[in-house]
Amino acid sequence: xxxxxxxxxxxxxxxxxxxxxxxxxxxxxxxxxxxxxxxxxxxxxxxxxxxxxxxxxxxxxxxxxxxxxxxxxxxxxxxxxxxxxxxxxxxxxxxxxxxxxxxxxxxxxxxxxxxxxxxxxxxxxxxxxxxxxxxxxxxxxxxxxxxxxxxxxxxxxxxxxxxxxxxxxxxxxxxxxxxxxxxxxxxxxxxxxxxxxxxxxxxxxxxxxxxxxxxxxxxxxxxxxxxxxxxxxxxxxxxxxxxxxxxxxxxxxxxxxxxxxxxxxxxxxxxxx
Length: 273
Hints:
It contains 8 helices and 11 strands. The protein is an alpha+beta fold. It has 2 domains: about 1-20 and about 235-270, no CATH class; about 30-210, Glutaredoxin, CATH 3.40.30.10. The strands form 3 sheets. A 7-stranded mixed sheet has the order 2-1-5-4-3-8-9, sandwiched between helices. Helix 1 (about 1-15) packs antiparallel against helix 8 (about 235-270) and helix 3 (about 85-100) crosses helix 6 (about 195-205).
């Protein structure tokens, strides 16, 4: 009976665990699902998507896949007050660094995913303000239905809030010249050099490891971005929550199975009598 109660307590605790996370941060379970979705998009091929760029020119995404250049896609929405401008600034630095190594051997596209609010005029204004200019960069958006299909295809996670803002993942997508998604590049604000590494893999044909290591995943779940310092800092509420959860789970595990395991260990150590 006691064991059944402890197991029930453990199950109930695991179900309620996400509620312990700071309300200002994404639920770690949701964030994990977002990362998993973006990772699953790797290896899939992009289809036909009609877009309109910052100059009002309509084009199809598949036009990028008729040549020999890979494509790098980033994601913003123009009314974003802090995070997207920071992402764009770091993305530009990452692209500039990659261009020093590879020149114009790759194309760059930034998607304004807040359809229909990300109009060509707003995209042009945003590009000039936060990317320095639109030279070498193409910003584009489309109608809501097309955006939904495209963002789901690339595995880009976003959630619209009641005030019209979005919670979204910080990533860019590298695409092979044939339109196949190669790798996602996460946390451009803290690891911009990873973009050049992924492009180098494409150019040399030497595929690297999966986009997220265990350390990278821990950074997603235990760290938050501080717009004032421009760095990732330890999110203490999340870290403490995970630590407490581990202690409770460990305690329940010991209470249910610990004594039995220890008894078997002592019996083996003492040997047959």
